[in-house]
Amino acid sequence: MGPQDECDVTKSIVAPYGRWEPLTPARIASLFAAMPCSWWIAGGYAIELAVGHHIRQHGDIDVMMLRPDQRHLHDALPDWECWAADPPGVLRPWEPGETLPPSVHDIWCRPGPDRPWGLQVMLDETSDGQWVSRRDPGIRRPVATIGRISRDGIPYLAPEIQLFYKARQPGPKDHTDFLAALPSLSASQRVWLSHALSHSIGPHSWHDRLAS
């Protein structure tokens, strides 16, 4: 979805394309257990996994994968429909064997044509073993450092990275997630997020809290 906010794009798509019943992180972990590549629960659920408790209600659930691994999604969900947001705000079927272009970052998945959407997958970029932010290619880290594992063994996106994505146009839910995650962020996580915000966005309302 490029620089647009995922939540805004989701809201624009829901009405014409059907309702959501998001899977739980545990259910996704079960479906993806045999996937031969890395993946991470993202969005608000990633913040909940980081802090270890429920924070708020969720209208959907996000999973992040790296773009070169996109082909494994069809293998993990062989009987599901996968639709690509291409262009952002418009869904089209994504068939097995098709490689999505760099302009497509968002994939919606559901068990069948009359079933609610269960999860959306966001494709992020990678180069020479580095994760590269789809929002700002100057923001990158070794792939091995971008994920965490929950107490239940579920991989999720490091909270400072998820908060970086939420920070561009933060709404009430994003502020709620930031305040919930802040006490558990280490000094190095706070420094990374502060530097990433300065590099990509500039002055931000979260800077003072990160420094306190």
Q: Helices and strands, in N-to-C order?
A: HHEHEHEEEEEEEEHHHH
Into which percentage range does the β-strand content fall? 15-25%
Shape: globular
Regions with little confidence, pLDDT below 50 for 5+ residues? 1-8
Structural class of the secondary elements? alpha+beta
Through-space gap between termini: 33 Å
The average pLDDT value, as a whole number, equals 93
Provide a descriptive summary of the structure in words:
The chain is α+β, with helices and mostly antiparallel strands. The chain has helices spanning 6-17, 25-31, 43-51, 71-76, 159-166, 172-181, 187-200, 207-211; strands spanning 40-42, 62-66, 81-85, 91-93, 106-110, 119-127, 130-132, 140-142, 147-149, 155-157. Strands 1, 2, 3, 4, 5, 6, 7 and 8 form an 8-stranded mixed sheet that branches. Helix 5 (159-166) runs parallel beside helix 7.
Secondary-structure topology with pairs:
Layout: H1 6-17, H2 25-31, E1 40-42, H3 43-51, E2 62-66, H4 71-76, E3 81-85, E4 91-93, E5 106-110, E6 119-127, E7 130-132, E8 140-142, E9 147-149, E10 155-157, H5 159-166, H6 172-181, H7 187-200, H8 207-211
Parallel strand pairs: 2-6
Antiparallel strand pairs: 1-2, 3-4, 3-5, 5-6, 6-7, 7-8, 9-10
